[in-house]
Design a protein that fits this description.
It is a single chain. By secondary structure, the protein is an alpha+beta fold. It contains two helices and seven strands, in the order E-H-E-E-E-E-E-E-H. The protein has one domain: Alpha-D-Glucose-1,6-Bisphosphate, Chain A, domain 4. Strands 1-7-6-5-4-3-2 form a seven-stranded antiparallel β-sheet. A hairpin with a 3-residue loop joins strand 4 and strand 5.
Length: 159
């Protein structure tokens, strides 16, 4: 299986508690996802329930060509205020593992996203990744970075 791993670091000028509470709430994912992707959580979600290992989150999203897809992720690891990992249970990828790592630093938090994914369909999937998916995923994270800057009200440092 041919995998791609991407790393994105961003400084967030907020407390670790505020950053953790924002990113560990799946409802906020819609705020930092490009509107063109039509992201919508379809599973029942209770804000009072803290993120936990084994938690499943179902949503619809249109990653390419405005075609809506159902995607289910499972939270596979949680270390409060440090990291969580979501993995695709079902969806468009052959593999999707997204690590969200939070490091408290002076005046804020460095948030690190480590994403490993693979496209199905063998060599054709590898070509699709190189021609379309890789750029699309990078564009999504660029949008996300700008929205996080806006939400937390300070231009991010590029690390």
């Amino acid at each position: 299986m041919n995998t791609t791993t991407l790393n994105f670091d961003q400084f967030v000028p907020a407390t670790i508690e505020n950053v953790w509470n924002f990113f560990s709430n799946p409802e906020n994912l819609g705020l930092i996802t490009p509107p063109s992707m039509n992201f919508r959580i379809i599973s029942d979600w209770n804000e009072n329930v803290k993120m936990f290992e084994g938690q499943e989150i179902s949503y619809t999203v249109s990653p390419l060509f405005h075609i809506p897809l159902k995607w289910i992720t499972v939270i596979t690891k949680v270390e409060r205020n440090k990291l969580f990992v979501d993995e695709q249970k079902s969806g468009p990828y052959k593999l999707w593992v997204h690590q969200h790592v939070f490091e408290e630093v002076e005046n804020g938090v460095v948030m690190r996203d480590i994403l490993t994914y693979a496209i199905p369909f063998g060599l054709i999937g590898t070509l699709i990744d190189k021609l379309i998916v890789y750029k699309k995923v990078n564009d999504i994270f660029f949008y996300r970075k700008n929205k996080i800057d806006e939400i937390f009200k300070q231009p991010a440092e590029i690390i």
